[in-house]
Amino acid sequence: MIKIGQLNTLTVVKEVDFGIFVDGGSEYGNILLPKRYVPKDTRLGDEIEVFIYFDSEDDIIATTETPLAHVGQFAKLNCINTTPVGAFLNWGLPKDLLVPFSEQRIRMQENHSYLVYLYLDSASGRIVGSTKFNKFLDKTPARYKVGEQVHITVVEQTDLGYKCAINDSHWGLIFKTEAFGKLFVGKSLKAFIKQIREDGKIDLSLQKLGKGKVDDLSDKVIRTLEMKGGFLPVTDKSSPAEIFEIFRTSKATFKKTIGSLYKERRIRIESDGIYLIK
What we know:
By secondary structure, the chain is α+β, with helices and mostly antiparallel strands. Helix content is 15%, strand content 38%. The protein has helices at 25-28, 211-227, 240-247, 251-263; strands spanning 7-16, 19-23, 30-34, 47-54, 60-63, 74-83, 86-90, 97-100, 113-120, 127-130, 149-157, 161-166, 170-175, 188-196, 202-205, 231-232, 267-270, 273-276.
């Protein structure tokens, strides 16, 4: 079954001067992949991965270009035009993404970037964007486990911390005390489920929980020292920004880690940095 707004692996069924047709099944029939997108040496019967969407004439079409987001995903996109029907954002394909006025929390302006969620409009079947995220998140039961690694997108900064979309499906929160590094709206990164509250709200951590995060960082410190000739110009006195730049971790976890490595006699700590003990 063809999935609009997603990558599909389809069979080449016809060759023409202006491209090839791939099999869209009984619902969509043959779908054109224009010649400029056809990979070299493609033949009848080959299976090819293509993105399916509607072109500027509202005809279904295939492309091997990669959009900035698929249906069901978040992306921070630039607004290139506003019209009486809504705003149009560049999402990496020839036909721009429409965000209707009814789907805008605030009125969009040209040359500004906005975090949007892509979905299929039930009335038209077309791919559109929205900034009204509550319509799409927390609509299925959250079956995460504490400690599970997930993908998050930072959606909003609040008084408590950073509100995030977990796996493009559920809301979660990184408390200010858990935040480190450069977090901003639209940033995507990995995180870990820290706690699932009785009311269903989910707390997130940017690091593995418990001893696991120290063990992981210990290995990373040793590997980095080996790559750098046995010396790194960082200590427990270094700034959080310096530590995050090298190890992508908090200063507290870094201090605990090098303390453990020092006790194990795997490193020595001097005023200018840390040294690997061979």
